[in-house]
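Students often ask what a 'structure token' actually looks like in practice. Rather than answer in the abstract, let us consider DNA-(apurinic or apyrimidinic site) lyase, a protein of 390 residues. Its sequence is given first.
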Amino acid sequence: ILMNQIKFESLNVPREELRISKCLPAGQSFSWRKVSKDSFVGILGHRVFQLKELENDTLYRCLYDGCSKVIKDEELDDYDDQEIENIPLKKNKVIKDEKNILIPNIDDDLCKRETSIKLSIFYCCNSTPNEHIRHYLNLDFNWENESKMAELEQPIHSLSEAYMNWNEADPCISSSPKGIRLLNIDPIEALFVGVITANNNISRITSIVKNMRKNLGTFLCNISDSEIVSCNETDESELDIDYHYFSFPTSLQIFNNASEEMLREKCGVGYRAKSIISISKELNQKFESDRVFVDYIKSLDYSNATLYLQKFHGIGQKVADFVLLSGFGFSAAVPVDTHILKYICKHVKFLNNTSLSKNKYVMGAQFFRDKFRLLPGWAQLVLFSSSVLK
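Now compare that with the structural description of the same chain:
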């Protein structure tokens, strides 16, 4: 199908509720490419989306969907990169090779076409593209429930009302970028990306994540930028002729295919390679699947979840908070980095921003929770975005 035949659809969300130009580059997710002044392309699971920012709305379209159809209420297992004979034949599946050529499913059995090309098995997501992107952007967030948890006298119903609440706690919120949403990042992606964020910057993290997808993830498709962006939207010299999209690897893909040397040389992760290998090994030895691990972490309260994550090699308090906030939606998680530490030190006189000890981290994060009772992790994200987007 030609890209220009895939129409954009409206998310019906006003600018004060979502600004992708502020959300996507601000250090939450590292899987989006800016392809024009108001348009981004990113990978969510086995789907490739394009988002376009308008004056008072955001449009989306799904450029590539690795699902054959939507299946509801069914446990879907991940059989990426396994041999054909190891895949249960009664599962609904779409199988494609690295050239994105469909290998048909005939009479409930896989076509026995001989091929030496690596196969990728794409399982149907249990959501439509619209549901998928709305969930990722947190557009159906339960504000009323969070209002109760924060014990607010009057419930809030939108992000703009949350900004008003935070502004009462600190008027500096009024000068922060509007429309900053807490994204629902894939938990496994958040876990490994969290390790990569340690002592790193946004540009380099983005490069490492891209390399991990390319070397360890599942090939999805290749799309020329000229197919999705018109010449009057951007400088033609900045367009990629043929950009290849890959899913973020599962822990099993990392465990089976990565080595410390490979992660350092091909992905550029540096000293973090040891942690990535160690975590992938532990997940595959202790849990039946990534989904089981994710469900286990979600079953814990914030305190126990952060303690559990810190048992992994290379994960301290800040990385644990990053993972829990972006990947698991723990709003009590407040990642304290140098930007947030400077903010906290302006309000807590006995703290200084020369170093970030464990005790200082704990006190600073608790100060933030006390100051911003409503979704402190989200409020932190707004202030963090204000710093990095200057």
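One point worth highlighting: DSSP finds 16 helices and twelve strands in the chain. Ask yourself how you might have guessed this from the sequence alone, and why that guess would often be unreliable.
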